[in-house]
């Protein structure tokens, strides 16, 4: 599991970037965003190999081949986010179009971003991120110092020059800022990359959905996450699943049955736009609960907890013990969701 957390917190307001653009001094032109997208990779985000985190290039940063661009607008129709797909299904990156917002919003190493198959929870994340840009542009809160510093650090570390913006102006680094990327990699523990639609939802209710290939509801992200954890542990239970026969990257009858049973155990609310269940239902779904008539999957222990900001020690301890963790998150509209976590 790869965890990328964007930390940012500044007290000083003395940082500034100067862009020569017709829209706003805070607007990030597409040419500059494209330059950034073409020159970052996981080594950059981890701060090793090609980059010295002191801010100097230790060697030339290789270019990445971009495929297509999707623009996400703000409420006024101006660009809020740039989404660049890389060629050969080698992932995508989401870059903000405002210098007051942290530059790298999301970075995915595999697959590609397809507008017609975006999961509902990812749509919610986009809505929250765009709303943050809207709030910045409406001056509902001030993120100028931390956003400026993050952009300055990014451009300096990737050695990008842009004729539209000129070279991003050097700024005084706020001495009490915490910014940049802190990356810890464990695993990946799971070798499955399961989805919610075709080949996975053949046993979900058929409610004539136009959004899926077979008219059936989505399996739901909670059931999909549960199923992958169950397959990882492969516990002995009354269901007698053929774990060995479950493909890692596609669905079959064995996967479909596991997905259906997981959905049943968390009382999945099936739908065409999304299928939802509460994460708090997962422990009973895994262990079983005689009172509710739920037959478990053979787990003797499973817990659900809410963590305050920064309380990550339990998650870290589980991952250090090679125990996969199911996480769900929500956005704080003012302070932003500070992490993106994926398997």
Describe the structure.
The chain has about 350 residues and is an alpha+beta fold. It folds into 2 domains: about 1-185 and about 335-340, no CATH class; about 220-305, Peptidase C10 family (Protein Binding, DinI Protein, Chain A). The chain contains 8 helices and 9 strands. The protein has helices spanning about 30-35, 40-45, 120-135, 145-160, 220-235, 255-265, 280-285, 315-320; strands spanning about 1-5, 65-75, 80-85, 90-95, 105-110, 180-185, 290, 295, 340. The strands form 3 sheets. Strands 2-3-4-5 form a 4-stranded antiparallel β-sheet. A 3-stranded antiparallel β-sheet has the order 6-1-9, with no helix packed on it. A two-stranded antiparallel sheet has the order 7-8. A hairpin with a 4-residue loop joins strand 7 (about 290) and strand 8 (about 295). The protein is elongated and about 60 Å long.
Biggest sheet strand order reads: 2-3-4-5
Biggest sheet character: 4 strands, antiparallel
Q: Strand content of the residues, in percent?
A: 5-15%
Radius of gyration: 22 Å
Q: What's the pLDDT, averaged over the residues?
A: 76
The number of helical segments is 8
Counted up, domains total 2
What general form does the structure show? elongated
Helix residue percentage: 25-40%
Low-confidence segments, ≥5 residues, pLDDT <50?
1-22, 48-61, 161-181, 332-343
Gap from first CA to last CA: 5 Å
**Secondary-structure class:** alpha+beta
Which oligomerization state do the chains in this entry correspond to? Answer: single chain
